[in-house]
Structure formats: structure tokens, C-alpha cells
Amino acid sequence: MNLTDMRANVRRDLHDEDAANYRWSDDELDRHIAHAVKDFSDATPYEQKATIPTTEGSREIDISSLSDRITVEAMEYPVDKFPRSYQRFAIWQDTLTLLGDDVPDGSNCYIYYGKLHTLDAETSTIPSRFEDLIAIGAAGYAMVEWAAFAINQVNLGGTETPALFSTQGQQKISHFRRELKRLGRKGRVRQNRLYTPATPITSVSTDPGP
Fold it and tell me: Which of 34, 85, 93, 173 is most exposed, with minimal Cβ within 10 Å?
């Protein structure tokens, strides 16, 4: 699916398919779709693996080349060992700093990270099973935006139309965000099983003592 297909799906959900009398312009719907894709990416980033050279004698690694980065899940160094050697690290802006005992020798490391999904005129990185969810979120944002605009406008559907749009839009957004929360929770479980988290997880069931 590309952006044109997604826009058509959103229009179908909004019952806005009369090309001679669109309620929302293409640009407006594209903005709401981008909003939904951004929210989806925050919950379920597009998984990537990058090979980045280290600097001999330095624990700092420049990760500015990781465009549209949302999160760094793991850092592997040295690479291609078994079991894999994942390192503890901290990130500040575009610098990843190793916190363990290993000091890089200038060889490559692997960075496992999540980035924004792409949905444009040619391509999409969104798994097909989540396309309907993106459409629901975009439709919800579109309805709430239109309701806010239409409050002081003359509406053929009557004075209750903006309130109805707002209510239905909020319902769609609530469903969209519940699903994103569920997806995000599933992702965290998988991540913590595979990798040592960059930020230690504090147990709420263990008594740390005096």
C-alpha cells in the first residue's frame, strides 16, 4: 500500500468519496495520515540494523547517520560473536557511549535501532496487518480537526454535526491509541528478552533493603 491507497481508505472510512465535493483536501488527509504514522512509529518503530565504525581508544560512537531515529535497542561489539556480545550504553544527542569494560579498537559495531516508518507515493514500511489501524487513527484525527473548525460554521447537517464528528473522532482515536499501547507493550517484552536494555529496569517486587 502507498499513500494514495491509504488516503482512499481513509476517505472510505470518512464517507468522503465524492471527488467533486470533498470535505477534506488531499493535503489535509495526508497530514492526518502522517500524524497516525508518527504515532504508530513511536509504538512500533521500523526495525533497522546499521554497521558503524568505532574509533580506536574511544567509547563514543557517532550515530548521527541513523536518520529518523526513534530509539536504539541494542549495540553489538565485537560483532559476529556467539553468543552475541551486546554492550551497555548511554545516548546523548547523536553520541552513543559504551559503559562497559570493552574499549573499541576501530573495528565496526552493529547498532540495532528503530526509526520512523515510511508511507509515501511509492513505498510503505508499515506491515499490511496494521494498515487498517493507521486508517482508523488518521480518520479520527481528521474528524476531530474538522469538528473544531466547523463549530462556528454553517453546517448542512445541523448544529449537532460538529459535536457528532468530535465524538466519533475521539472514539476512533481512543481505539487507535489503545491498540498502539498494546503493540508497544508487546515490543518491550520482546526487546527485553533479546537485549540488555540501555536503561536498567527497576524491579517493583524486590525489597532493596535498608
Answer: 93
